[in-house]
Specification:
By secondary structure, this protein is α+β, with helices and mostly antiparallel strands. It is built from 1 helix and 3 strands; from the N terminus they run E-E-E-H. A hairpin with a 5-residue loop joins strand 2 and strand 3. The longest helix is centred in the C-terminal third of the chain and has 11 residues.
Length: about 80
């Protein structure tokens, strides 16, 4: 995980929601990349409900799926 270096999101950003870049290798060896949205006052010693969000084929993570993730993080979910 790392902080967003070049924030290209195209919706109104909630500054209380921390967003991290994430990359990981799936079971087929492909490297996947995305954004991890953390709820306000996130505490890594606690457990949170989580939701994985994916846009349709050809979607851009900085558009609709990012807005949904931010809104769910505002409600206490980890995306």
């Amino acid at each position: 995980m790392s902080k967003l270096a070049n924030d290209t999101r195209v919706f109104k950003i909630n500054p209380k929601i921390d967003v991290q870049n994430v990359r990981f290798k799936n079971r087929y060896g492909f490297i996947l990349a995305g954004h991890l949205y953390l709820p306000t006052d996130f505490d890594d010693s606690k457990e949170y409900p989580a939701i994985v969000i994916s846009g349709p084929f050809g979607a851009v993570k900085e558009q609709s799926s990012g807005l949904y993730a931010q809104t769910l993080a505002e409600r206490g979910f980890v995306q």
